[in-house]
């Protein structure tokens, strides 16, 4: 599904943040992406979301060499990806329900066809009573769960999540992890960036470890 070959990334004239990254993210796989703060996890997720271009190397996403993809085609490819940003990126003028339903609305689906699914997912992530709230009145943990629900609702082929349990307590983190696993069981490849060891210790999954810009893979 995804292939990186000798990929390097630097911001402007700065040092190379990621170096010689060669790896695959297979279809339907589940992996954690970890490494110290500043190691480059978010940067790697941005490469995977095609919001950054590598400074060298080859990236293939969904069988397309992304260097050859015109920028006008990127939104269409990105629709195959669900992403949870570290800063959530909810739209403040839309309710929690409307934020989560957005990927479905963009596809032109009528609300009657997804209303129940959205409400059920919101209930599952503990936001059953926040359906009509606007993001500015949500807590950090509530925003995070809304962002997760939005990333999952359309059952993407690939899910990218940046510290998705950073703002919730351990029981909720466990619940969210089980949600990611369920999505994976249904066929989504999942990449979770985290430095939460207790989260990673909850299951035997592939670990992609970034150290000084280089990647090591275990499992
Ligand atoms: N837009 C940018 N311009 C210049 N340097 C950047 C930019 N974004 C990130 N960096 C630098 O790239 C390095 C990797 O940052 P990145 O955010 O990818 O790390 P991270 O592993 O996600 O960190 P954290 O766990 O703290 O979120 C850091 O040294 C950071 O300062």
TrEMBL record:
<dbReference type="GO" id="GO:0022857">
    <property type="term" value="F:transmembrane transporter activity"/>
</dbReference>
<comment type="similarity">
    <text>Belongs to the ABC transporter superfamily.</text>
</comment>
<keyword id="KW-0472">Membrane</keyword>
<dbReference type="InterPro" id="IPR003439">
    <property type="entry name" value="ABC_transporter-like_ATP-bd"/>
</dbReference>
<dbReference type="GO" id="GO:0016887">
    <property type="term" value="F:ATP hydrolysis activity"/>
</dbReference>
<dbReference type="InterPro" id="IPR017871">
    <property type="entry name" value="ABC_transporter-like_CS"/>
</dbReference>
<dbReference type="InterPro" id="IPR015854">
    <property type="entry name" value="ABC_transpr_LolD-like"/>
</dbReference>
<dbReference type="GO" id="GO:0005886">
    <property type="term" value="C:plasma membrane"/>
</dbReference>
<dbReference type="GO" id="GO:0005524">
    <property type="term" value="F:ATP binding"/>
</dbReference>
<dbReference type="InterPro" id="IPR003593">
    <property type="entry name" value="AAA+_ATPase"/>
</dbReference>
<keyword id="KW-1003">Cell membrane</keyword>
<protein>
    <recommendedName>
        <fullName>Cell division ATP-binding protein FtsE</fullName>
    </recommendedName>
</protein>
<keyword id="KW-0067">ATP-binding</keyword>
<comment type="subunit">
    <text>Homodimer. Forms a membrane-associated complex with FtsX.</text>
</comment>
<dbReference type="InterPro" id="IPR027417">
    <property type="entry name" value="P-loop_NTPase"/>
</dbReference>
<keyword id="KW-0131">Cell cycle</keyword>
<keyword id="KW-0547">Nucleotide-binding</keyword>
<dbReference type="GO" id="GO:0051301">
    <property type="term" value="P:cell division"/>
</dbReference>
<dbReference type="InterPro" id="IPR005286">
    <property type="entry name" value="Cell_div_FtsE"/>
</dbReference>
<keyword id="KW-0132">Cell division</keyword>
<dbReference type="Pfam" id="PF00005">
    <property type="entry name" value="ABC_tran"/>
</dbReference>
<comment type="function">
    <text>Part of the ABC transporter FtsEX involved in cellular division. Important for assembly or stability of the septal ring.</text>
</comment>
<feature type="domain" description="ABC transporter">
    <location>
        <begin position="2"/>
        <end position="219"/>
    </location>
</feature>
